[in-house]
Amino acid sequence: MSQNKNINLGYINLFNTHIIPVKFNYHAPQTLEEALNLLNKLKDKARVIAGGTDLIVDMKLRRKEPEHVVSLNKIRELDYITVDSLGVKIGAIVKLRKIEKEKIIRERFPALYEALKSMASIQVRNMGTMVGNICNASPAADTAPPLLIYNATLTAKSLNNERKIPIEEFFKAPGKTALKEDELVTEIFIPYPPQDSHSTFLKITRVGMDLSKVSIAVLTKFNGSIIEDIRIALGAVAPTPLRIRRAEEFLKNKPLTEENLKIVQEIVAKEIKPITDVRSTEWYRREVAKVLVKDALMKCLEEEGGR
Amino acid sequence: MNSNFIGVKTPRKDALAKVTGREKYAYDIYLPGMLYARVLKSPYPHARVKKIDVSRAVEMGAIVITFKDVPDVMFNPRLISTPDTTYKDWRVLTDNPRYIGEPIAAVAAESEELAQRALESIEVEYEVLEPVLDPIEAMEEGKPKIHEKIMLGNREIVVERNIACRLEIQEGDVEEAFRNSDLIIERTFKTNKCYHNQLEPKVAVVNPEPDGGLTIWCTTQSIHNTRLLISEIFSIPVSRINVKRLPIGGSFGSSIQTNIVVPIAVALALKARRPVRLAYTKEEDMYEHSSFQMIFKFKIGVRKDGKLTGGYMENIMDIGAHQIQAYPLLGTCAGWWVSLYKLQAVKYVGVAVYTNKIPACAYRGYGNPQVTWAVETIMDEIAEILNIDPIELRLKNYVGEGDIFWGQGPTVKSIIKSCGVEEILRKGAELIGWKNRPRPGEQKGRFRRGVGMARGYHTSSAGSPIPGQVIDYTGAILKVNEDGSVDYITAMVDQGGGTLEAHAKIIAEELCIPLEKVNIVQADTQTTIYDVCTHASRGVYAGGGAALNAAKQVKKKLLELAARVLDAYPHTLKIRYDKEKKQGVIYVEGADGREITIGELATLARVKNWGTIAAVETYRPPACPPHFTGYFVEVLVDTETGIVKPTRVVIGADVGRVINPDLAEGQLHGGFLMGWSRATIEDLKYSRETGDIECRGFITDYKMPTVMETPTEIQTFFVETFEPTGPFGAKGLGEGAQNPAIAAIANAIYNAIGVRFYELPITPEKILEKLKEKEKIELKIVEGV
Questions:
Q1: Domains contained in chain B, number
Q2: Given this model, what pLDDT does residue B778 score?
Q3: ipTM strictly over 0.90?
Q4: Strand, coil or helix: B279
Q5: How many domains does chain A have?
């Protein structure tokens, strides 16, 4: 029993979801240049908002209390999906739902399509953006595993610089990315997967509209019964979404036998670092990650057989 | 029976306003000059306030109240039990918070934002006390005392070992019964604490009137009990308090008590002398109410032929930090048990224990889903051991027509006069394909199918021939308007299930007038006579009974007046519903042309100064007839992930006469989904480190099924019986619609994988763990280790 003086409001008194109980300055630049100027000036005092499906919630719950909020929603030059011979480019404020409805996504990037379709509700997908989903850097971001297996590249711009960041180098920790405080992700480029490859996305959740307990995206390219190219990425099982390179290296140039499958499952179980949280337990995540690896690979194999 | 409205599908009167968003709920009430309130809550599960400084909030212009500013009155927010059985341990605001979220102070300001700022400026110095989160631990000697002294009625009592109250029942010689048994089965069950997650969070808007009185708009299941409680706490005459009856966005029992927002808003409004609105956010709402958590120990004896002999039940209930209805629940849990199956001897020990958790209150079924889960699990086990068909075992033992039924604990009983149990079970079995169900645990392969069943019931009202410890009566006022329409005035709250719509149909049926001519008046406490509360599945049965009796009174008066006009004897007159005229027509049988519409008659009554045709009916339901349900559930278990999906559901119900077929079916659909949620998903888990709920009030982490979890096939059917004490033969439905769901789902999971679960919820994590354990054991057996 402690007698210490305790002046503590507790988070329970700070939450107020009727309002955004945070004082902030709102900026709505019309051009990218204006936005980059603002970020250059405000640096870490500013938070960027696109769909707001993460930031507004965080602000209502006082997880984030930015002095400035810079909205990208009036910057029309960031609202595009362009398709060329190399792949698809998606601007920073394109809504998840719009990407999901794009024919090229459904046809060439089935893992991303499945991930988009599985996210939240249509209402939320009409608000949220894919760049936002990535920049929020949740370990459970559903678009992350597909973008990882498709080797997507992000374009980061600041007032004086532009650079390309491979998605695998983008996530640093929960909520932390490779982005500098004055940088914006303006575009995601997704190159086409290899001809005749198969890719798929699976996830396990508590209920239909939910964050993943575990998610997975897998890409395979077979040459006969031999796996020529293989990419495996998982979400919600480590501080960041991650590619399981060791599993990929093991499977490359091997047939997908029952024995190999078992070894891959064990490699995946070893490589991931799941935690116990309100959604699930460490043990369960490890167990079902193995199941998802098998299910995803078998699905790709079935597609190969049916081709 | 030929009916114009009973059992006929008709559109709801409130549907248009609801689907267009124009219905006015308490949350939609805005008054000129209204202040916005916020509540300062304890961040500790157990603490004492040593110092509180509100000066900055006052400087900011806020109206502030703390525990020092509220009446020193100990109360119980629920006024359904008789005063001598009501335990009181609540205060409006406290300096001794006993759970995270308990209100300590409150502010009101010109906007939500200002109120929030004012709230955050309050400085509190706490002495942090050790919390107790487990009910078994709480009863150990030397554990921190959550309450020292509480009140039972007007008597002060001392709390020992954190035991809030207890109840023991013994009938017959249990030991003798066990001696006469061929099989004795003993099991322990643990249920989950659940959040009601009704759509509308709790709200109160209070307007202080110039005469010192109050007008209150709030989320409540009982406007009269809200008025009585506010009068009791604040010593304001009952006549000066007016509580408005509003549509509410569901409650599932969470407003059976007057929610704490109401007295807090009242205290603020009295101090501010201005209207105050206190609306909880969804997150705050989760800290306001939840269900009881129970640990059951059962010992049941049975003979080889499947006849049950006697039983022992121990029920330890975690009630959280305050009593709302722990004592009556101890009684109902015993009642739900003994009214399922006949036992010659029973012994029951119920103990309600305080913990530093969110206070528990009624939650759809009031202990019945939990008790039914335990009993129906045991019945399934007995059936398997004795190799008797589970349905036959149930039919051999069930409490049915002619038997005594405990509707609301040991003091509310009546004889069952309508019962469709056998038909429900036979028809349900046929529809689900019971004979072809898998044998438990015999399936191989990853995906395994399971079929399970369970039966149950719930009371309809807490009525009985003699008064018990539960207050149950209601009332209706009915007046005939000059055009032949009627105004129906009742205090009964419609929780959203269409209760008042059912009353309107009953009135229309009795008076032979079109449904649209029954006007459900927006009412309040000053224009209605007493109704206890919309709970205990009593809306249609008790409220409909009052409405029917009022309509009968009105009909008698109509016939008396019509007799003057038609020159006939009142008792020979008939009424028919004339669809063309859209009127009720009173006529003399066999005498052509001797007829008058109710509209013409009412107009004539005005012109001739005969007066208004009206009736006041105060009504005590004479019985507590059970409505019966049976669940048949098919599931598919993925043995590699532990994920279970419902694939097919058949639900049969005996609700007496069905008043509203669409709405009745909706209750069954909702009942299944809620049961699915309680069986497999929901759990308001506490962290031992923080003493807080793990989801911290966020429904993001308090999951419930979505449309994606809904099975594509839910088949419902009604076995219509006629309840002689009910309006047009009707009984209740709201709670029985769900009660056996958890049990049937649990039995289906067992049928699929051969593993029983004695702790809710049955999550994929738990299923996978058990399956892995079983796998290991089986492997060892195979390897001969």
A1: 3
A2: 81
A3: yes
A4: strand
A5: 3
